[in-house]
Amino acid sequence: MSDKLTSHFKDGKQVLPNVPPLQKVSDSVYAVLGMNPGPFSLTGTNTYLVGTGEKRILIDTGEGQPAYIGNLKQALKNIGKLYNYIIYI
Could you tell me the pTM of the whole model? Predict the structure, then answer.
């Protein structure tokens, strides 16, 4: 098996890098950690706020975990965008 596929295992235990819950990736992309760690998503899925104009596109809306919703609201505040509703099902 490739070393890249098993590099997050140390002494038989999964050890993952620290991933910040909010991260500015570039001037037009802001990442928000989905707060949903698991065996296939590792530290959790990421969602992305993309764009530079008045409106932003949200890609991959996660699972609606309570901590994620708070982080998403903070990310919107950090980039200076207001929101009316965040709906998750």
Answer: 0.72
